[in-house]
Design a protein that fits this description.
The protein has 177 residues and is of the alpha/beta class. Helices cover 47% and strands 23% of the residues. Helix 1 packs across helix 7. The structure holds flavin mononucleotide (FMN).
């Protein structure tokens, strides 16, 4: 199969996940890794499977990823899988990051895209986002310290391993069809 891993990443977290997925895809397939800024939507049709990755911005996928999803025509030939990184711990996921999953799912349903699922993990927030979270979301100093001590490690080697497992499943399911 021809596989494209395309991603948006401002501070490198989503890029780490993209590289892990690309590494897995490269084992048995012709795989290409590209930043979203380097492509236009017309190249997607050259592939059998596209992994599309984004940071979570303002509770949803980042604008360049929303734009490319919007530009995908109805019933494309390629299959789609998603991935994203976010700064939320499990208690806040529904409020602060779950829309990313919905965006992939709803667009895929609306456009009859063969959607193979979506992977997500935490990614360390940049300093301005740390300030926002500290001010607006996790306002207790103790809870903040506990949260930050954990989130600063992500994506962890285990997160990247799980991303590879996700990629492996998607690749083998797509190759069978
Ligand atoms: C402008 C902006 C808005 C963000 N909004 C959210 C959000 O609503 N929910 C969340 O969980 N993380 C949010 N984050 C944190 C990022 O999703 C997270 O740190 C991600 O791993 C960054 O990925 P990157 O390093 O690939 O850019 C936001 C980050 C930025 C820069």
């Amino acid at each position: 199969m021809k596989v494209l891993v395309v991603y948006c990443s401002e501070t490198g977290n989503t890029e780490k996940v993209a590289r892990a997925i690309y590494e897995e895809a490269s084992k048995d397939h012709e795989a290409h890794l590209k930043r979203i800024e380097k492509i236009t939507e017309d190249i997607l049709d050259d592939y059998d499977l596209v992994f599309l990755g984004s940071p979570c911005h303002s509770t949803d996928l980042a604008a360049p990823i929303k734009r490319i999803l919007d530009a995908i025509p109805h019933s494309p030939e390629f299959k789609l899988a998603g991935f994203f990184t976010h700064a939320t711990s499990s208690g806040g996921f529904k409020r602060w990051a779950s829309k990313c999953i919905l965006s992939f799912q709803e667009t895929s349903k609306e456009k009859k895209i063969d959607f193979e699922g979506c992977y997500n993990c935490q990614g360390t927030p940049s300093p301005p986002i740390q300030e926002f979270i500290k001010r607006e979301v996790i306002t207790s100093a103790g809870e903040w310290e506990e949260y930050f001590e954990e989130v600063r490690k992500h994506p962890t080697p285990e997160d990247l391993q799980k991303a590879k497992e996700f990629a492996r499943k998607v690749l083998s399911a797509s190759a069978k069809l």
